[in-house]
Amino acid sequence: MISDHSDLVRQVEFRVLYICTANMIRSPIAERITRMRVQSCAGDGWIRVGSAGVQGRGGMPMHPIAAETLKAHGAESSGFRTRRLDGSLVEDSDLLLAACLEHRDAAVALHPAASRRSFLLREFVRLVRYVPRPFQGHYARDLAGQVSRAQGIVAAAARLRGHIPWQDPLTDEISDPAVTDSGLLASAAEIDEAVTEIVETLIGGARSGISQRDAG
Q1: In CATH, what is the architecture of 12-203?
Q2: Which of 151, 93, 155 is nearest to 127 (CA)?
């Protein structure tokens, strides 16, 4: 039985949280590009996207060059304010995607139970490519079903850790870019490629998964 309105909202929302250092460049770029991709894939309404930083102050605007970079990608930057990562943000998220290992570790330190929902951004992309059908190919019709399916993809990705070809975690990191137009454009392109694949997978329009035989 649903006890209150917050329980109902929780059943029909899948919450994604991006994490970087100060929540001024990498994570806001990922957040706003993801929102744009979600809307274009008809997932708007049940995927809720946010971001936070492990350091810095809350309530600040994103870096101005990051805002210009988003504009160049066709994404919206207005109304953004930084947030400092805390335990409640971690606990409330269904999927936590970090730029670097230190950011993922900070999230898990705040709420250890979130370890199986916390990934490096590019690590999660690699893992979901091995998630077998029906997760990859199934499209749930109702909101609760869509949320449940997305949560199942996250759980399946976590179970694949240690069961796919090993890769140095440092190669999955998205390093702090040079704060220049070209530096942020390159970083945004890298982020966009990753989040687009994730959105397609979560919503159900994903590319075919890699077979378990290929997963080795």
Answers
A1: 3-Layer(aba) Sandwich (3.40)
A2: 155
